[in-house]
Write a structure and sequence with these properties.
Family: Belongs to the PPR family. P subfamily.
Low-confidence stretches: 1-41
Distance between the termini: 144 Å
Radius of gyration: 45 Å
Shape: elongated
Structural class: mainly alpha
Helix content: over 70%
Mean pLDDT: 84
Number of strands: 0
InterPro entries: PPR-containing_protein, PPR_rpt, TPR-like_helical_dom_sf
Protein name: Pentatricopeptide repeat-containing protein
Organism: Ficus carica
PPR repeats: 187-221, 300-334, 335-369, 376-410, 412-446, 447-481, 482-516, 517-551, 552-586, 587-621, 622-656, 658-692, 693-727
Number of helices: 43
Length: 762
C-alpha cells in the first residue's frame, strides 16, 4: 500500500484515483503491528498526508464518507495528537474550524475520548487564528465558540490565549479566559503562563490572586522553579507604570514560596535585601533573609553582606552581631567584604580600637583559625582613614609602612590620600607634603583627589599662594583640576576679598572646558555679592543658568542681600519674584534681609507689609526681625513704638530679646534722658539671663553722666569688674572726662587696674 501511495504522490495522479485507492482495507493484525513497530513515523506522516489531501478542496466539496472512513474506521486511528497535527497544517482557521465541526458531528467515541479529540482540534484552530490578520477580535470570538460548544481548552490553548491577549493588552479578555478555565485544564504550567502575562501587564493584584491559589498548602498545582523565575524578578521592579509590590507582599511571597522549596536565586535575593536596606526598611530585609534561611534555601555571603551594609549605615550593632551569629550557625563564611563592612562601620562611629581588634582577628585566620581571610587594600585604607579621622595619623602612617614591609598588599593612591588629608586636618601641611613626595617616589600616581586635598589644606591654613603653585605644577603633570579644585581656590580668594583673582580662576575654569558644578558658581556669586560687585555677580548668575543650573535659596539670599547693601532694591524685588516663579519659597533669612534694609532706610510701612507677608507664609519673626524694626524705630526717634514692639516680643514670642536689642533700646532711651526706663531694662536683662556687654555699659555710662547719677555709674563699674567685662576706648573716654571732674580719680584708677571701686586696693 505504501508503495502505491508513494507512486501516486510521485506521478501526481488525480484526486479521484487516490480516493479510490484509499478505501480502507483490512490488514492482518500481525502485519499491522510489525508495520507500526518498523515505521511509526512514516505511517503517521502517511495518515496525515492522506487526510490533508482529502481536506484540500473547498469545505463544500469534501468527500465526507471517505473522510469518515479514514478518520474513524479504525479505533486506533483518531488520536488527539494526529488530529492536532492535521488541523495545524490547514491553510486557515476557518477550515480548521470546519474540521472541528466535522469531528464533533461524526465521532462516536466515548465522551472522554471525544472531548480530548475536540479540545486538541480546537487548539489548532486557535493557533491558526492567532497568526491571521485582525486576530485579536477573531481569537476571542473563537474562544466564545468553544464555550458555547462546551469544549474545554487544552493547557497549551489556554497558555496561547494568555500570551496573545497579553501582547495586545487585552486584560479583560484574558481575565474572562482565566476565570472560566476548566479545572481539568488548570495546572502549574497554565498558571505560570497566566501569572507571567498578568505581571507584564502590570496587573499585580490579579497575578497575586492566581498565586494565592498555587501557594495554598497541599494545592493541586503548586509553584515550581519556573514560577519563581517569573515572580521573583518582578519583585524588584520600581517603574512608576508598574504597581510595585508592597513590602509585606514581598516578604509574604518569599516566605510562602519557601514552604514549597522554591527560592529566589542569590542575585535576586541580594538585590531584594539591598533595596530594603537602601530604603532603611531593615525589618523587611531581615524577614526576607530569615525566610529563605529557615526554609532551607541557599544563602550566600553576599546576601548577608547586603543586610550588614544597611545595618552598618544605621549603626545597628545589635542586629549586626545577631546576623554574624546566624552566619556562623549556618556555616556561611564571612569574606573580606564582610569584615570590611564591619570595620568601616566601627571606624565611622570612631570605635577605631574595636576595628583594630577585628583586623587582628582576621589576620590570625578568624575565630579558631577557621576563616582564612586575607585583608585587602580596602580594609587597610578603611583603618588608615579611621585612624586619621580620630587624630592618630602616626599610627595610620605606621600601618602603611606595615603594608609595604609585609608585602601583604600594595598601598594605592587612596592610601596616600587618606594620610595627606589626615595631616592636613590637624594643620601639619609640611607632613602632608612629605607624604606627597613619598607618593611620587613610590611611583604611585596622584589623582585629582590628591590635588584637591592638598590645595584645600593649604587654603584653610592661609597658604593660598602655595596652593596655586602646587595647582599649576600638577596641571603641567597632567593632573587637571576639576570643579571642586576651582571652587576651593575661588572661595579662598573670596574669603580674603581678592575678588579679581577669584574671577581669574573662574574664567580659567570656563576657558579650559572644565565640567563645572553649581558649587563653583555659588562660591563666586557669594564672594562678589559680599564685595558689592553686583554687576559681576549678575554676570556669573547668567553663566550659571547657561550651564543648566538653577539658583538655590542660599544663592538667592546672598544676591538679595548684595542688592540691598548696594541700594538696588528693584533688583532685590526682581530676585524675590524670580524665586516665586521657580517655586522656591522665601525663608526667614530672605525676609529678614529685606526687612532690615527697609528699616535702615526708614521705610517702616513697607517693612511691616513684608513682615505681614512673612507671617502669612507661616514664618515666625526671629530676634533679627524684631531687632531690625526696633532699631528703625529708635533711629526715627520713636522709642515708644520701639518699646511696644519690644514688649510684644518679650511676651508673645518664643524667642527672647538678645543683648543687641537691649543695647539699641538702652542707648536710645539714654539719649532721650529716659534713664530710669533704661535702668529698668538693665534689671530685665538680669531677670532673663541676658548678659550685658561693654556696649551696654557704655550706653548706660553716657546716660548716667548726662543725668549726673554717679552712684549708679560706680555700681556698674563694679559689675563690669565682677563679670570680667573689659572696658574699651569708649568706656575710658566717657569715664576719664567725667570722674576726675567729680573727684573720683582714685576710683577710676582702681577700675582701670581691674579692681572693684567700692573696695580698697590690695
Amino acid at each position: 500500500m505504501r508503495r502505491i501511495i508513494k507512486s501516486l504522490y510521485a506521478t501526481n495522479q488525480s484526486s479521484k484515483t487516490l480516493l479510490h485507492l484509499l478505501q480502507p482495507r483490512r490488514t492482518p493484525p500481525l502485519l499491522r503491528h510489525l508495520s507500526a513497530e518498523s515505521h511509526p513515523l512514516n505511517d503517521d506522516e502517511t495518515f496525515i498526508s492522506q487526510a490533508l489531501q482529502l481536506l484540500q478542496p473547498p469545505e463544500s466539496e469534501w468527500n465526507v464518507e471517505q473522510l469518515r472512513n479514514l478518520l474513524f474506521s479504525d479505533p486506533e486511528t483518531p488520536s488527539p495528537k494526529r488530529l492536532l497535527r492535521i488541523a495545524r497544517r490547514l491553510d486557515s482557521s476557518s477550515k480548521a474550524l470546519k474540521l472541528f465541526d466535522y469531528v464533533r458531528e461524526n465521532s462516536d467515541l466515548p465522551d472522554d475520548s471525544n472531548g480530548e479529540l475536540l479540545s486538541s482540534t480546537f487548539q489548532a484552530v486557535l493557533e491558526l487564528a492567532s497568526r491571521e490578520p485582525s486576530w485579536e477580535k477573531r481569537l476571542f470570538e473563537l474562544y466564545t465558540t468553544s464555550r458555547d460548544r462546551n469544549v474545554p481548552l487544552t493547557a497549551n490553548a489556554a497558555t496561547l490565549l494568555f500570551g496573545c491577549f497579553g501582547r495586545a493588552g487585552m486584560r479583560n479578555e484574558l481575565m474572562v479566559v482565566l476565570e472560566k478555565l476548566d479545572s481539568s485544564c488548570k495546572n502549574t504550567h497554565v498558571c505560570n503562563g497566566a501569572i507571567d502575562v498578568l505581571l507584564r501587564l502590570g496587573c499585580v493584584d490579579d497575578a497575586l490572586h492566581v498565586l494565592d491559589e498555587m501557594l495554598e498548602p497541599g494545592g493541586k498545582f503548586p509553584p515550581n522553579e519556573v514560577t519563581g523565575d517569573i515572580v521573583f524578578p518582578m519583585l524588584l521592579k520600581r517603574e512608576r507604570s508598574f504597581r510595585r509590590f508592597k513590602d509585606e507582599e514581598i516578604v509574604g511571597l518569599v516566605s510562602r514560596f519557601g514552604e514549597h522549596g522554591v527560592f529566589p536565586d542569590t542575585v535576586i535575593l541580594t538585590q531584594l535585601i539591598t533595596n530594603f536596606s537602601r530604603d532603611r526598611k531593615f525589618d523587611c530585609a531581615w524577614d526576607v533573609l530569615d525566610a529563605v534561611m529557615n526554609s532551607g534555601g541557599s544563602v550566600v555571603t553576599a546576601s548577608c553582606n547586603a543586610l550588614l551594609t544597611g545595618l552598618g549605615r544605621s549603626k545597628d550593632f545589635k542586629r549586626m552581631n545577631e546576623l554574624m551569629a546566624k552566619m556562623k550557625e549556618r556555616n556561611i563564611k564571612p569574606d573580606v567584604v564582610t569584615y570590611g563592612i564591619l570595620m568601616n562601620c566601627l571606624c565611622k562611629t570612631r570605635r577605631i580600637d574595636k576595628a583594630l581588634e577585628v583586623f587582628a582577628n582576621i589576620r590570625d585566620g578568624g575565630e579558631n583559625g577557621m576563616y582564612s581571610v586575607k585583608p585587602d587594600v580596602i580594609i587597610y585604607n578603611t583603618l588608615i582613614d579611621g585612624l586619621c579621622k580620630v587624630g592618630r595619623q602616626e599610627e595610620g602612617l605606621k600601618m602603611m609602612e606595615q603594608m609595604k614591609s609585609e608585602n601583604c598588599c600594595k598601598p594605592n593612591t587612596i592610601t596616600y590620600n587618606c594620610l595627606i588629608d589626615g595631616f592636613n586636618k590637624v594643620g601639619e601641611i609640611e607632613r602632608a607634603l612629605e607624604i606627597f613626595d613619598q607618593m611620587k617616589k613610590d611611583q604611585m600616581p596622584p589623582s585629582v583627589v590628591t590635588l584637591n586635598t592638598l590645595v584645600d589644606g593649604m587654603c584653610r591654613h592661609g597658604r593660598v599662594n602655595s596652593a596655586v603653585e602646587l595647582f599649576n605644577e600638577m596641571q603641567t603633570n597632567s593632573i587637571k583640576g576639576n570643579a571642586h579644585t576651582y571652587s576651593i581656590l575661588i572661595t579662598a580668594y573670596c574669603n580674603v576679598n581678592n575678588i579679581d583673582r577669584a574671577m581669574e580662576f573662574f574664567d580659567q575654569m570656563v576657558s579650559t572646558g572644565c565640567s563645572t558644578d553649581a558649587v563653583v558658581y555659588y562660591s563666586l556669586i557669594s564672594g562678589l555679592s559680599v564685595a558689592g560687585r553686583m554687576n559681576d555677580a549678575s554676570m556669573v548668575v547668567s553663566k550659571l543658568k547657561e550651564a543648566g543650573f538653577g539658583l538655590d535659596i542660599i544663592a538667592y539670599n546672598v544676591l538679595i542681600s548684595g542688592f540691598c547693601k548696594t541700594n538696588k532694591l528693584d533688583m532685590a524685588y526682581k530676585m524675590l519674584k524670580e524665586m516665586e516663579e521657580t517655586g522656591i519659597k522665601p525663608d526667614i533669612v530672605t525676609y529678614n534681609t529685606v526687612i532690615s534694609y527697609l528699616s535702615k532706610k526708614g521705610r517702616l510701612e513697607t517693612a511691616h507689609r513684608i513682615l505681614q507677608k512673612m507671617l502669612n507664609d507661616g514664618l515666625a519673626p526671629t530676634v533679627v526681625t524684631y531687632g531690625a524694626l526696633i532699631h528703625a524705630y529708635c533711629l526715627n526717634d520713636n522709642t515708644d513704638a520701639a518699646m511696644k514692639l519690644f514688649l510684644k516680643m518679650s511676651s508673645g514670642s518664643k524667642i527672647p530679646p538678645n543683648t543687641v536689642i537691649y543695647n539699641i533700646l538702652i542707648d536710645s532711651l539714654c539719649k532721650k534722658k529716659e534713664v530710669e526706663l533704661a535702668l529698668s531694662l538693665m534689671d530685665d536683662m538680669k531677670v532673663k539671663g541676658v548678659k550685658p556687654n561693654t556696649t551696654t555699659y557704655n550706653a548706660m555710662f553716657k546716660g548716667l553722666r548726662d543725668n549726673n547719677l554717679l552712684e549708679k555709674a560706680l555700681h556698674f563699674m563694679d559689675e563690669m569688674v565682677e563679670q570680667a567685662c573689659n572696658p574699651d576706648y569708649i568706656t575710658i573716654e566717657i569715664l576719664t572726662k567725667w570722674l576726675p571732674v567729680v573727684r573720683k580719680t582714685h576710683q577710676l584708677k582702681k577700675f582701670l587696674q581691674g579692681y572693684s571701686v567700692s573696695e580698697p586696693a590690695a
